[in-house]
Amino acid sequence: EQIPAGFGEPGMGPISTGMGLVLFYYLDDASGQYSLEELRTMQDWIVKYNLQTVPGVTEVLGIGGYEKQFQVNVEPSALLQYNVTMNELLETIEANNLNVGAQFIEQNSEEFVVRSVGLATGLDDLENIVVKTVDGTPVYLRDLAKIEIGGAIRRGVQTRNGTGEVVSGMVIKLFGTNASTVIGRVEEKVR
């Protein structure tokens, strides 16, 4: 209401800029014990979230390796057989793969957080999702699709000093923070 005509609608700007990239790193496995997929999983689920707790860090991006994903390869004939649409299938998978907060319970002057943890952690979790029932018999996701672990489509490769492929990451700082301070905090977190 207070913006003069002709200046458009207000919007939120980014909390970082292209100048916010302050640190590159790579995961070093000198033992050769871990695959590129395992290193990328460590990057995306352990390293990233630990570094994002550092004050002044707005984002941590992973590069290289193979992103592990659960793949649901739908059998069209099974959808027809059980009269299930793709939309119904997608909505059911999504509804059964959510973490949901549900408020608090007060008991004896204490508050307890109630939440539902629903993220799939393995193939069984997905295979056993009930999509619908037919005459009282459950139709599971495994009846409609083949569920397997695979890799996401790769959009690039990261190498280091010509010695082969590595998994790396980059740290992006919050707009307006001091780059040296943020780098120091990240290095301290890694120690």
Walkthrough of the structure:
- This protein is an alpha+beta fold and 191 residues long.
- The chain folds into two domains: 18-67 and 153-190, 2-Layer Sandwich (Alpha-Beta Plaits), CATH 3.30.70; 69-151, Multidrug efflux transporter AcrB TolC docking domain, DN and DC subdomains, CATH 3.30.2090.
- The chain is built from six helices and nine strands.
- The chain has helices at 36-51, 76-82, 86-95, 123-127, 141-144, 179-190; strands at 21-27, 57-63, 68-74, 100-107, 110-116, 130-134, 137-140, 145-151, 167-173.
- The strands form four sheets. It has a three-stranded antiparallel β-sheet, with helices on one face.
- A hairpin with a 2-residue loop joins strand 4 (100-107) and strand 5.
- It starts with 20 loop residues before the first strand and ends with a helix.
- The model has no long low-confidence stretch (mean pLDDT 87).
CATH class of the largest domain: Alpha Beta
What percentage of amino acids are in beta strands? Answer: 25-35%
Query: Given the helix and strand composition, which structural class is it?
Result: alpha+beta
Domains counted in the coordinates: how many? 2
Number of strands: 9
CATH fold title of the largest domain:
Alpha-Beta Plaits
Overall pLDDT: 87
Note the main sheet: 3 strands, antiparallel
- What topology, given as strand order, has the largest sheet? 1-9-2
Q: Which ranges are low-confidence, i.e. pLDDT below 50, for 5 or more consecutive residues?
A: none
Helix proportion range: 25-40%
Number of helices: 6
Q: Can you tell me the CATH architecture of the largest domain?
A: 2-Layer Sandwich
Tell me the radius of gyration: 23 Å
Quaternary state of the chains: single chain
Order of helices and strands: EHEEHHEEHEEHEEH
CATH homologous superfamily designation of the largest domain = Multidrug efflux transporter AcrB pore domain like
Query: How far is the first residue's CA from the last residue's CA?
Result: 50 Å
What coarse outline follows from CA principal-axis ratios?
extended
